[in-house]
Amino acid sequence: MSSKQESVPPTPLIDPFQRSITYLRVSVTDRCNLRCVYCMPEEGIPFLPRREILTLEELARIVRVAAGMGLRRVRLTGGEPLVRNGIVKLVRWIAETPGIEDVSLTTNGMILASYAHELADAGLRRVNISLDTLDPERFRAVTRHGDLAAVMEGIAAARDAGLSPIKLNVVVMREVNDQEVAEIARTTLEEDWEVRFIELMPFMDEQETCIKDTSLVLGFVPTQEVRKQIEEALGPLEPAESVSGAGPAQYFRLPGAKGLVGFISPLTEQQFCASCNRMRLTAEGRIRPCLLTDQEVDLKETLRRGDSDDDLRQRILEALDSKPDAHHLGDGNRPHRRKMAQIGG
Ligand code: SAM
User: Fold this and answer.
1) Which of 70, 75, 192, 268 could form a disulfide with 258 if both were Cys (CB 3.0 to 4.6 A apart)?
2) Model-level pTM?
3) Residue of minimum CA distance from atom 25 in ligand 1
4) What's the confidence (pLDDT) of residue 336?
């Protein structure tokens, strides 16, 4: 990490649309132990050579500099963050960074059981676990390699380690898992999970998202339809708040439920972008101000040619300045295909 003198006073991370950016999602690797149909083709993506991926020290330095500018929360993602060597050490460094109040991680849960306690000891607060179906066969089809039992063990271990709240991410796909949404929501009656239904984002071509053996093509399902199915089966959803505070999800509670049902609606919620508080750092060291637009600012070169923290700050501000008001998918904008793992969805 740099020991160069800091001469520029911390600048609050306010973007041109007066949104305060306090949250960074960091893709720590583009590699993954699964091949979810909506995220990666079966053969994987051409993975970045290791030298192109930021080192743990580089990642920690970016977080330290950004924390001095007002960053408060960091989420580690990927790819699969738990396949990155040194992930526990990185969590510890980030958790110990002055200014950082919350470190969390998004995982597919496959190897979470063996990491949950170590991660919690290192300062991780909570985990989001991707779980698109509760049916073992369907789970294997959607993830191509996944073992539902291993993920359920991971969830149990996370709870045991005190990681809370446990959020489950469900990407809803027509004729794949849309018939199951009420069953998945039902789990919140007994479990204090926050189950979040996510609208499918256009990251893959239609043909690529075909599940070969079943010839299913993934289709978009709007939140409104998911909500209707859940309410018809289980009763009215009452507005509620997540204990972890503001984020892109709108939360509700089923009558008498221990957990929450959330909806993340990047495509159908008008206000989705207006409340955006985040930027992303790609595995190869580019700040991406918006997940769904391809604008990026490279930090790796700045880091590797030995520039100062001031220079790094300037590059972060440049990225902030280029954050768009909204993703404009409705106006035909389409993000670069196949990059979700590098970006850190
Ligand atoms: N490997 C980790 C995991 O599975 O959670 C972290 C990376 S994954 C890219 C992060 C999140 O992005 C997951 O919850 C996943 O479901 C979501 N995601 C990936 N592709 C998506 C898409 N096309 N539309 C909506 N969500 C997507």
Assistant:
1) 192
2) 0.92
3) 200
4) 67
